[in-house]
Design goal:
Length: 528
């Protein structure tokens, strides 16, 4: 899958919540590696408390992630121009030192594991602990390495990069300035059109246009000024790029340089953004809740509820005719009659309220929407309508969904791929159908067996998922599912299974993945 199809690249993502008791944390999300593709619906299933909502929320940056890397490709790095880029380039030697320290940690812990493995006097437990520690150290090193190589590519191999970083910084800043000026120009252009419209309006009504004409020439003057600056910046940018190209040419043919150069990556590292930078991205990423009742302010009309975000994100300057027309358009798209714009939430049915919640999110033209049990509180027939609405809206705007639901039939119906979570980790991920037909993980098998089927001879399967979910405060060692898994062996109780792509697009974390082919369970199609 090429990078331009990717919206998120997530590696070793962790979200731990501290508890009041010192030193204890709830490991709600505990090392997730996954990519989310543009335009897909990624379904997410797993028992209550396994971390589905937390995963969705941490992607939306409603929490600051505890560890790991979340790269976002919905906007270019240059247009957002986050401070960490400059900070990393300026302090490159410090970052490289830290990388060297982490590399040493990793090498030491890998060596320790090798050493213990050869030493017969060591307990199995000690050997396995060393292996787990070495795998963790490798992940930490790898993320720190990507922090740097992502920004400077092949130049990471240059011993003293003090000649190169000013060039990289200059090219980045000129390019960001270019984006900023373009944004200003577009906004001014819109304003010019608005003033021109109101001048024509005034002329028709034989009213004076003096003030408006003056405003118009002020705006045009501004546009000329910015355009001139933009030309200068374009020249500076071209020069900066030329210098960088020359520096790269000097290294061309060097295999090590080229290998690192391929890791250059234009993704925005969400975990390194400041709060104000996150705020800029917030409109891109929306959340649709389970409970439309509690998330709608009862004292605001639908128009105000949908308009609130539009004003906050400066889609419109004020709540005027234009904004109302826009809100009505979105309402209509979401199956709400535009005349309802002045009504209050209590005057709607449950399904309609969910439509208001959807309209509020989609009005901001997001790229990514987390639907967290978005239909779970609705009657089955209404559920189907809302799911179909979400599908239509997705097609129209090429949205990407993370669709969380405890209802496997619903997830199967709407998803392109399905991820299965257990105690803070993904345990399996595959194209939706394959999760059912080529199940690889014992936990997935157990979850599927728990779906009520029409085939009564299947009843025996229901007993597969025995026992309680262990506590996410102190999850079991090794494979976290081993306390409930009927296929577990010695290694499962000690060693964390690696997340592997066993077949193309089919990932699993299990020492003994299943291979038997499965019957497709009777998922109830959710259609009207
Ligand atoms: N803000 C928080 N502070 C502390 N612990 C939290 C917080 N949010 C979630 N948790 C804990 O993290 C774990 C994962 O919770 P999460 O809500 O993500 O699960 P879920 O898979 O969405 O469950 P459900 O299907 O019930 O919605 C749970 O043990 C939960 O108690
Ligand atoms: S790793 Fe072992 S315990 Fe875990 S799911 Fe696989 S077989 Fe079961
Ligand atoms: Mg939840």
């Amino acid at each position: 899958m090429s990078d331009d199809k990717i919206l998120f690249k997530i590696s070793n993502l962790k979200q731990h919540f501290p508890l009041k008791t010192k030193g204890l944390t709830v490991k709600a999300v505990n090392g997730v590696d996954v990519q989310i593709f543009r335009g897909e619906t990624l379904g997410l299933v797993g028992e209550s408390g396994c971390g589905k909502s937390t995963f969705g929320r941490v992607l939306l940056q409603l929490y600051r992630q505890t560890d790991g890397k979340t790269l976002y490709y919905g906007q270019s790095l240059e247009s957002l121009a986050p401070a960490y880029v400059k900070e990393t380039l300026v302090n490159l030697s410090k970052y490289k030192q830290r990388l060297a320290d982490l590399q040493k940690d990793y090498q030491d812990s890998a060596a320790l594991h090798e050493q213990l493995k050869e030493d017969d006097s060591q307990s199995v437990q000690a050997v396995y602990e060393a292996l787990n520690a070495s795998q963790e150290a490798e992940k930490r090193y790898r993320n720190a390495y990507l922090d740097i190589v992502q920004l400077i590519g092949g130049f990471i191999i240059v011993e003293d990069p003090s000649q190169i970083t000013p060039l990289l910084l200059d090219a980045f800043q000129q390019s960001s300035e270019q984006h900023r000026l373009q944004g200003l120009l577009s906004a001014l252009q819109l304003e010019v059109e608005e003033v021109q419209r109101s001048i024509r309006h005034a002329q028709k009504g034989n009213r004076s246009t003096g003030t408006k004409e003056r405003r118009l020439s002020q705006l045009q003057e501004k546009i000329r000024g910015i355009s001139a600056t933009q030309e200068r910046v374009a020249q500076d940018l071209a020069k900066a790029n030329r210098l960088l190209d020359d520096a790269r040419k000097e290294w061309s043919g060097n295999e090590e340089f080229e290998t690192h150069e391929r890791l250059r990556d234009n993704g925005i590292d969400l975990s390194r953004l400041t709060f104000s930078e996150i705020r800029v991205l917030r409109k891109d990423m929306q959340l649709i809740f389970q409970d439309p009742y509690s998330s709608l302010n009862p004292r605001m009309t639908v128009g105000q509820i949908i308009g609130e975000g539009l004003l906050a994100h400066r889609f419109f300057k004020r709540d005027g005719e234009e904004m109302q027309a826009y809100v009505m358009g979105v309402m209509e798209e979401c199956g709400l009659a535009p005349y309802m714009i002045h009504r209050y939430p209590h005057q709607f049915s449950g399904g309609q309220r969910q439509r208001i919640g959807i309209a509020r999110s989609l009005a901001l033209k997001p790229q990514f929407v987390v639907c967290d049990e978005a239909v779970s509180a609705l009657d089955v027939s209404i559920q189907a309508q809302i799911i179909n609405l979400l599908r239509d809206l997705k097609e129209k705007s090429n949205l990407t969904y993370l669709f969380i639901s405890h209802d496997l039939a619903v997830v199967k119906y709407i998803s392109d791929r399905i991820g299965v979570m257990y105690l803070g980790n993904f345990v399996e991920l595959a194209p939706a159908r394959m999760i059912f037909t080529d199940t690889l993980h014992p936990y997935t098998e157990a979850l599927l067996a728990a779906i009520p089927t029409t085939d009564r001879t299947d009843q025996g399967k229901m007993i597969l998922l025995e026992g309680d979910i262990p506590s996410p405060i102190k999850p079991p060692e090794g494979c976290k599912f081993h306390t409930r898994c009927r296929y577990k062996t010695e290694i499962c109780t000690h060693v964390v299974p690696l997340w592997r792509e066993l077949e193309a697009g089919h990932f699993v974390a299990c020492h003994h993945p299943l291979t038997r082919s499965k019957d497709v369970p009777d998922a109830v199609p959710t259609q009207d």
